[in-house]
Write a structure and sequence with these properties.
By secondary structure, the protein is of the alpha+beta class. It folds into 3 domains: about 150 residues, Maf protein; about 55 residues, no CATH class; about 60 residues, no CATH class. The protein is built from 5 helices and 12 strands. A 5-stranded mixed β-sheet has the order 2-1-3-4-5, sandwiched between helices. The protein has a 4-stranded antiparallel β-sheet with strand order 6-9-7-8. Helix 1 runs parallel beside helix 5. It starts with 19 loop residues before the first strand and ends in an 18-residue tail after the last strand.
């Protein structure tokens, strides 16, 4: 109660306050995801050892990854919900390769998905980042591996060793520098080109850099889940896509720079346009296809 005798208004509780949600993971992602969802939403994240997400696809190809990132994450979350009986499921998915805008550098794309069975909504958030150690090297048994290992952060970041060509055993989660040399020799003998392929292990529990980016995404995801739709009040209102077309300050032509951010509701499809958060009102002539063709 205030000094004037008026009751203080209580802030509304976040939409998932105290709710239990199953996180479908076998790679320890709860350590990156649970803290943000607990701090922002007071959500209780649970995991289960009976959930085998590898059956839906593996990075190393033993089980083909045939779904899109979004569909794979949804399938993981539904698997967790089915096996535990909880009506809220969360899952993470990642992909790695050339940066879409700068192809000569590596990039990671991380995705988080929440399925809310009671509300009938699926909420997702993603992160595109250059902060990744994704890389590989093809090497002969007498090759010099140390520069590559230093570059990718070994031994805190594990590697995978396999034959470069043809079938053979895939050795995962290798953090022992003395073991790598023998595995390179072993897999080279099996490989059709007598070489081994040493690649970064991108599973989160063997890759602290990736785990850190998942934690960064989880914070972004938590803030989205806490944001209610202005039209219907459902959680998860946030940016759906960006629209290019920021005008050139010199000639007024449209450029490729983002002009508008489009936010949307996962339930009622209400959308809202907002200016880009970088604060630019106009593009420079250097970024204009008319002024600088």
């Amino acid at each position: 109660m205030t000094c004037s005798g008026k009751l203080l208004a209580h802030a509304p509780l976040p939409p998932y306050n105290g709710v239990r949600a199953i996180l479908a993971t076998r790679h320890g992602k709860e350590h990156a995801i649970a803290p943000a969802l607990s701090a922002t939403l007071n959500m209780q994240i649970v995991t289960s050892p009976i959930i085998d997400t590898d059956q839906l696809g593996t990075f190393t190809g033993e089980v083909p990854r045939t779904r899109s990132m979004h569909d794979a994450a949804v399938a993981k979350a539904r698997l967790g919900m089915r096996l535990t009986g909880l009506n809220i499921g969360i899952a993470s998915e990642g992909s790695f390769g050339p940066h879409p805008a700068i192809p000569f550098i590596a990039a990671a794309r991380e995705l988080l998905v929440l399925i809310d069975e009671q509300r009938g909504i699926i909420i997702s958030e993603h992160l595109l980042t250059e902060c990744t150690n994704f890389d590989h090297i093809v090497i002969a048994p007498d090759g010099y591996l140390q520069p590559f290992l230093e570059k990718i952060g070994f031994p805190s970041h594990a590697v995978i060793v396999r034959p470069n060509k043809g079938k053979g055993p895939i050795h995962k989660g290798i953090c022992d520098p003395y073991l790598i040399a023998s595995l390179v020799r072993e897999t080279s003998r099996i490989s059709e080109d007598a070489k081994a392929r040493v690649e970064t292990d991108m599973r989160a529990h063997f890759n602290p850099t990736r785990m850190g980016q998942i934690a960064k995404l989880a914070d972004k995801f938590a803030r989205r889940l806490a944001t209610l739709c202005p039209a219907c009040g459902m959680p998860g209102f946030g940016i759906l896509r960006s629209a290019p077309g920021l005008l050139c300050g010199e000639c007024g032509a449209e450029t490729h720079l983002v002009k508008t951010l489009i936010s949307a509701c996962a339930f009622c499809q209400f959308t809202e346009n907002q200016p880009c958060s970088d604060g630019l009102r106009f593009a420079s002539a250097a970024q204009c296809p008319e002024c600088n063709p």
